[in-house]
Specification:
The chain is mainly alpha-helical. The chain has one domain. It contains 14 helices and two strands. It has a two-stranded antiparallel ribbon with strand order 1-2. Strand 1 and strand 2 form a beta hairpin. Helix 5 packs across helix 6, helix 7 runs parallel beside helix 10 and helix 7 packs parallel to helix 14. The protein is globular. The relative contact order is 0.15.
Length: 372
């Protein structure tokens, strides 16, 4: 919106000719990132005070680590402002006629509503239960299905490779691994719903989830920009042997806003946290990452880039399966970050070491561009 308004002025007023720079995606990525960061840093003090005033405090699970009991009452649902500082800069600086951007904002808002209802029920009932799991999962599937249905039911994806898999170690243009349409769309839905819940599971320590989200968002900034941008007629995607998808480069602005909003939130969420994200933040951020992977055909690259989230999810699955089959637990507690807490690691040590792992995995994900 703001982008279209300002860009239109450069032709009408000679002294505003410098606004021509807004036609470059890279300029608007920087603008969106800074806007999101500044909005976060400016609004969170007021937002935290408001949450405290209306007594929206965190409900801590009784079977969790005892060190977490002191966190009861810390303001939660801070993810509401993350969504605001993610969506507003995207709307301001991105081309809102671009269907990839419209879907990104829609899926973020949709999962945000699901997370908001879940958090509100937890606070109202003073229980960590929230929305019934089956209902929440069904709603997540509905939003993801609508998104994927539009993405692949329209002409957004080039027909020539719409259902072809893009594998991290293979030249996209020299293999022909194509899935049936319904199977491919099922995979896309699984990626979105799966990563939404994976980020939600990871959000258990102060700052643990948000920094890996920022790292993954920054990685997909590069991937979406490369997949959808031509520079002076040069096709970056073809050079890197990844699919060129016209229009998907605009999602790099959404990624920039995600990074700015996440870093702004981390300022107040770092140990000891002044505010918690809640499901209203973790669910849409995870779904957003899943959507970025699906839209840029990086579903399998996301498994590498978001490997920390995968690890957290697998630890829960392994724990549950092991206990049901053998009556024994593999970990002291799942998700796995609680296992290391109970082994004696301090919370900041767990968080920072997991950040380092997330950063290393992001580098591996980017390295696959050259290996293709």
């Amino acid at each position: 919106m703001l982008y279209q308004l300002l860009f239109s002025l450069h032709d009408h007023f000679g002294w505003l000719s410098w606004l021509n720079v807004l036609r470059y995606t890279s300029t608007r990525i920087l603008a969106a990132t800074l806007t999101a960061l500044l909005l976060s840093l400016f609004l969170y003090p007021w937002f935290i005070r408001t949450l405290q005033k209306i007594q929206l405090g965190q409900v801590v699970r009784d079977d969790g680590p005892q060190s977490h009991f002191s966190k009861r009452g810390t303001p939660t649902m801070g993810g509401s402002l993350i969504l605001f500082t993610l969506i507003i800069p995207t709307v301001l600086w991105a081309d809102m006629s671009n269907p990839f951007i419209l879907l990104a904002t829609a899926i973020t808002a949709g999962y945000g509503v699901i997370g908001f209802i879940d958090d509100a029920l937890k606070v109202r009932r003073k229980s960590s239960g929230g929305m019934p799991g089956k209902v929440k999962f069904l709603l997540q599937c509905v939003v993801a299905t609508l998104c994927v249905g539009y993405l692949y039911g329209s002409d957004m994806m080039p027909e020539s490779f719409r259902y072809r898999l893009a594998l991290p170690l293979l030249d996209f243009y020299n293999h022909d691994i194509v899935l049936p349409s319904l199977l491919y769309m099922g995979l896309a839905i699984f990626v979105i719903v799966g990563f939404s819940n994976a980020v939600n599971l990871t959000d258990g320590l102060d700052g643990l989830a948000i920094m890996p989200v920022v790292i993954a968002g920054g990685t997909f900034l590069v991937l979406t920009y490369a997949a959808g941008t031509l520079i002076a007629g040069f096709d970056i995607a073809r050079y890197l042997n990844i699919p060129h998808i016209p229009g998907v480069g605009e999602l790099a602005i959404y990624c920039g806003a995600m990074c700015g909003a996440g870093i702004g939130f981390l300022w107040y969420n770092t140990f000891p946290a002044s505010v918690f994200m809640g499901d209203v933040g973790s669910l849409p951020l995870g779904a957003g990452l899943g959507y970025l992977a699906v839209a840029s055909k990086n579903e399998f690259t996301l498994v590498i880039v978001g490997g920390l989230f995968v690890l957290e999810t697998v630890s829960v699955i392994v724990q549950v399966v092991s206990f049901k089959l053998t009556g024994k637990r593999v970990f002291k507690m799942a998700p796995i970050h609680h296992h290391f807490e109970l082994k004696g690691w301090s919370e900041p040590k767990v968080v920072v070491r997991f950040w380092i792992i997330a950063f290393m995995l992001a580098l591996v994900g980017l390295a696959t561009l050259k290996l293709r």
